Amino acid sequence: MPVTTQKLIQWKQAGRSIVALTAWDYAIARILDEAGVDLILVGDSLAMVALGHATTLPVTIDEMLHHTAAVRRGTKEAFVVADLPFLSYQESPAQAIHSAGRFLKEAGAQAVKLEGGYPAMVETVSQLVLAGIPVMGHVGLTPQSVNRLGYKQQGRTRDDAQRILQEAIALDDAGAFAIVLEHIPTDLAARITAKLSIPTIGIGAGPHCNGQVLVTADVLGLSAQKPPFAKSYANLHGIITQAVRDFSGEVRQHQFPE
Ligand code: KIV
User: At 219, which helix (H) or strand (E)?
Assistant: First the structure.
């Protein structure tokens, strides 16, 4: 049965952990979906892991649409969320509705994710929700703000922790169906998770969130660099290198084709 926003919220109430991973193409999406992942995020981290950029900032709406449509074609059961790229939603609620609408209409995304919980962004979220577009929030470390915040853990001081908690509550009140908590202290993530009616999906936020998300390239051992909180469950870089060397050897030795 396909995953829905209602199910994700019920799973929080029932204490069932939500499994989320990123995908950037059809092949990866098909594997994640068949393996039973609940939520597939077409994260703008694909700018770095699939397109070779240094940050998430350069990826365009058209590139994200192209990748999202491929992921959607590979997905039957998981809930597909697309990241709105940098400056495709920050200007105004109208800009956000226009951009988010393209992801639902043109690429088949079921929801969008956007970064930030400051008052203007909360207003944007409530207008997107009113327009019928499910929204996933994202607070704590927000990579689109790398030039202002860097990649360091957020919410370490009392004031910063309080601000992030208030942002998460405001996004919940605005109608977001879930929130990513990135690289914040475990106790802060636990407080936010207890306070919200919607699920929290942690990445570098400790074990008390309602679900966990990682960048699939990190999980599979494909990334050139991974953040300190990520974990690799396979070394595909090594496996692919060996397969390519085996093929090259057989071609050069005239062993393939037989
Ligand atoms: O772009 C992305 O992959 C993300 C995750 C890190 C949550 O936003």
Answer: helix 216-219
Q: Does the annotation count 106 as an active-site position?
A: no
Contacts of 174 (CB under 8 A, 6+ apart): 122, 123, 125, 126, 129, 135
Query: Strand, coil or helix: what is 21?
Result: strand
Instruction: Render pLDDT for 28-70 as a digit per residue (tens, 0 to 9).
Output: 999 999 999 999 999 999 999 999 999 999 999 999 999 999 9
- Span from the CA of 17 to the centroid of ligand 1 (angstroms): 18
What single-letter amino acid sits at 161? A
**Catalytic residue selected from 34, 167, 182, 258:** 182
Q: In this structure, are residues 102 and 96 in contact, taking their beta carbons and an 8 Å threshold? A: no
Instruction: Give the Å distances, CA to CA, from 89 to 92, 103, 115, 185.
Output: 6, 12, 10, 28
Residue 224: what pLDDT?
86
pTM: 0.98
C-beta 135 within 6 A of ligand 1? no
Q: Which residues of the chain have pLDDT under 50?
A: none
Look up residue 152 and give its DSSP letter: S
Does residue 46's CB lie within 6 angstroms of at least one atom of ligand 1? no
- List pLDDT tens digits, range 183-193: 999 999 999 99
Per the document, the length of the chain is 258
Q: How far apart are CA 221 and CA 245, in angstroms?
A: 18
With CA atoms as reference, report the closest residue to 45 among 23, 66, 25, 62. 23
Rg (CA), the chain: 19
Distance separating alpha carbons of residues 48 and 144, to the nearest angstrom: 12
